[in-house]
Amino acid sequence: MEMFYYLVFGGLGAVVAAVELSKTNKDRINTSSAFNSFKNNYLLVYSLMMAGDWLQGPYVYYLYSTYGFGKGEIGQLFIAGFGSSMLFGTIVGSLADKQGRKRACVTYCITYILSCITKHSPQYKVLMIGRVLGGIATSLLFSSFESWLVAEHNKRGFEQQWLSITFSKAVFLGNGLVAILSGLFGNLLVDSFSLGPVAPFDAAACFLAIGMAIILSSWTENYGDPSESKDLLTQFRGAAVAIASDEKIALLGAIQSLFEGSMYTFVFLWTPALSPNDEEIPHGFIFATFMLASMMGSSLASRLMARSSPRVESYMQIVFVVSSLSLLLPIVTSFLVAPSKVKGGGISFSGCMQLLGFCTFEACVGIFWPSIMKMRSQYIPEEARSTIMNFFRIPLNIFVCVVLYNVDAFPITVMFGMCSIFLLVASVLQRRLMAIADKPKTQEWSMKERDNEAEPLNI
After folding, report:
1. What dihedral angle (degrees, nearest 10) is formed by the CA atoms of 210, 213, 218, 222?
2. Residue 203 above 90 pLDDT?
3. Which end of the chain, N or C, is more open, meaning fewer C-beta atoms within 10 Å of its C-beta?
4. Mean pLDDT, to the nearest integer, of 19-40?
């Protein structure tokens, strides 16, 4: 493997270590022992949940290909997963608010374990069922756990600012360190132990089972609105009213969809961008490098959120602009550097420049996650937190499905240009969010009052 990869990885590792070790009292928040115990319990569970997710990611496409399926059939399986998340995500989110977030987290574990079990079958229909289950699980992962955490944090009377500690640590561990270790562990199972591409899915099921046991034994239940008189349609309408009546919530949803849509598109595009002529690149090592960059971003976010200035709404404008510029690099290099027509070989000079840009983008991803979590905790009403969060994922999943379906229809530079524009729009919307964040509401939103007003319509 070329020295360039080691230099980038080592440089990022040194920066992460420097950021963490150089934290002063201004960068830390004094908390209580009760909160630390609560936080550590959640981080353990969240890390196990993310390990179950990260172990599967690198081997899904590979497993399907070993079963003899072509690119088109595999694409349909992936679309089924995102489509399932879009169709069923809002329903399971509403059920989480009504039936309990702890139950929803346990349901995530069971659903994802069942999805892992289906990977043992080479039958297309069984694998399709597994993708549908996986899509439902993904919706639960990115809504129910955060909803449970915010509600439980507030129920226990902890300081609101302390939430930022849990968010940044969750991203640092779950989307950084655990992702790297999961990639290495999966590689060990498949390549070193020669257990086959299904082994990471079995390991993921074990981690999910351990996490479920901890949830069942140590978590308490909390709800959004447990009113039995509310059906799902009423909850959907209430969530839609919340988004439509509060510009901050609508802006937050649009920002999240634009950024995550660009992020998921990047996941599909970085490999062909770095190896347009089938250059030999170490995919696993580059993935680990990206995750290290994400860790650096989450570490920076924890320092930023520990201070009163700059505010999240302020610095995220810069983050979106930087991420937009970083995804312009494939377009810039295509104009400035003559493309090589030689097949194979090592990574090109333009590939090296793009890799540095992609690491910058991943650092922005690391800042984005805890920051968007903090803003969601401030602006989304507790009564329908999971429902609204899954509403946000509907345009995201539509976008990803369209991109997957048309991934070969456009040049890669066009795709990156589209993502860059989306991120610039996100920056503009973030500026608008900051402008109205401190304005008092002209009319307080209350789900119960609105439901009472709408009651005669349900008779």
Report:
1. 110
2. yes
3. C
4. 86
What is the amino acid identity at position 276? P
What the block records as the tokens of 120 is 């043992």
Residue 329: name the closest of 288, 293, 364, 361 by CA. Answer: 361
**413 touches 330 (CB < 8 A):** yes
Q: How far separated are the first and last CA of the chain, in Å rounded?
A: 69
pLDDT higher at 200 or 334: 200
Crossing angle of helices 33-54 and 144-155, rounded to 10°: 180
Report the candidate in 432, 420, 112 with the shortest Cα–Cα distance to residue 250.
Answer: 432
Residue 178 CA, chain-centre distance (Å), reads: 14
Q: Is 11 exposed, middle or buried (0-12, 13-18, 19+ CB in 10 A)?
A: middle
What is the CB neighbour count within 10 angstroms for residue 159? 13
Residue found by looking up tokens 């991420």 in the block:
323
Helix (H) / strand (E) element for 61: namely helix 60-66
- Closest by CA position to 291, among listed 393, 190, 220, 359: 359
Cα angle, residue 449 at apex, residues 448 and 450 outer, rounded to 5°:
90
d(CA 388, CA 87) in angstroms, rounded, equals 14
**Average of per-residue pLDDT values in the chain:** 86
The answer to whether the beta carbons of residues 253 and 396 sit under 8 Å apart is no
- Confidence band, pLDDT 50/70/90 cuts, at residue 365: very high
What digits encode the pLDDT tens for the residues 278-303?
777 777 788 888 999 999 999 999 88
Angle at 160 between CA 154 and CA 164, to 5 degrees: 115
Q: Are 198 and 119 in contact (CB under 8 A)?
A: yes
Query: Angle at which helices 283-305 and 247-274 pack, to 10 degrees?
Result: 150
Whole-number Cα distances in Å, 23 to 19, 150, 165, 302: 7, 26, 14, 10
Give start and end residues of each alpha helix (H) in 119-231.
124-141, 144-155, 163-172, 178-187, 199-218
**Residue 426 is which amino acid?**
A
Q: What is the pLDDT of residue 105?
A: 96
Nearest to 400 by CA among 266, 215, 255, 207: 266
The whole-number pLDDT of residue 441 equals 47
